[in-house]
Amino acid sequence: MVVTDLTLLFDYDDTLQENQHDYSWPQLDFMKFVRGKFRTESPNGHLDYGEAQLFFAEYMLRALDFHAPDVQTMLKMVAEQHESLGGAKESFPDALQATYTTICEGAHITPNGVDIVSVLTLGKRVTPSQTRAPDVKTLIDLEASIDSARVKDLGFSKERFPGSLRLAYLAVCEQLGVTPDEADAREAYRIGTEAFDVDNYRRKGLLKGVPETLDYLADRGASMVLVTKGDREVQKNKLAATDVKRWFGDRMHIVPKKDAQVIHDVLEREGIQDYSSVWHVGNGLKSDVEPAISAGIGAIYIPRETWHFERSGAKRPENGARFIELKRFSDLRQVYDLL
Ligand SMILES: [Mg+2]
Q1: pLDDT in tens, 106-149
Q2: Is there a contact between 26 and 165 (Cβ–Cβ < 8 Å)?
Q3: The predicted structure's pLDDT at residue 186
Q4: What separation in Å is there between the alpha carbon of 19 and the centre of ligand 1?
Q5: Which site among 126, 309, 320, 325 is 20 to 30 Å from 299 CA-CA?
Q6: Domains of the chain, with CATH numbers?
Q7: pTM of the predicted model, to two decimals?
């Protein structure tokens, strides 16, 4: 083992593990649940618009993985495409296909023929029906606005998201003039807790190439520290479920936010004074690269920000900054000797 004085700080979410869609799945389940409560039967084998849109979003999450935007964005895109095509039933399949193609373009991936046939087929199954259930776009916008209003007071607390789903259910009942059912309100809350399902973290494991690469870096003698932002309990469960302790030991820091000051504090606690041999490895320009550069350490950027629409607005560091962009995590092996 060669000992170097190089220190690598690692981000966790979407750098070591895929967490992009932790909230997307419970959001879909929540909408299915609420719509199921207020739905009127539609003819055999046919879907109403809401069901078709939820199937579409689910299909995108499975087919495109982290390239798929969040659910709210996808539903908004479908609604806009459908409207721009005139909003008739006949144009709905084309609206789904156009949304799929736009997502692929944004993520720089080639649309796939099987996926196109699947979304067109899905779109053709739609039969508009009379239902009391709120349309899915209204539903997700309601949930998202309740949730983001609560961030101010509750931050990244574990209670926030499930509580927001419960409140969204209650708000729908009020809008429809229906007395809420306490058991249903509890179910809405429970669906929200799926976002923090430890078994799910364990099943997912770490991203491809991560364990081998961390082994390699450890063998090369790199000093490795983990710095992750979020709720203490939630992050602790994730780290335990994927056993990253074997690389980081007790050098794991859960921080409420990531900025220059927080990075300085972590480095001080780790007894590191020479910033010239420190690099931060993370997936986000705004959430990782910017804080690292402003803290005076190097930034290794492995993009994983869903798609470029979300990346727009985030700036790359100016020329001369200690900045390296890699395609995948395992490429750290190739650049290791240059750091
Ligand atoms: Mg991250």
Answers
A1: 888 899 999 999 999 999 999 877 777 888 999 999 999 999 89
A2: yes
A3: 98
A4: 8
A5: 309
A6: 7-17+205-338 (3.40.50.1000), 40-131 (no CATH), 134-201 (no CATH)
A7: 0.83
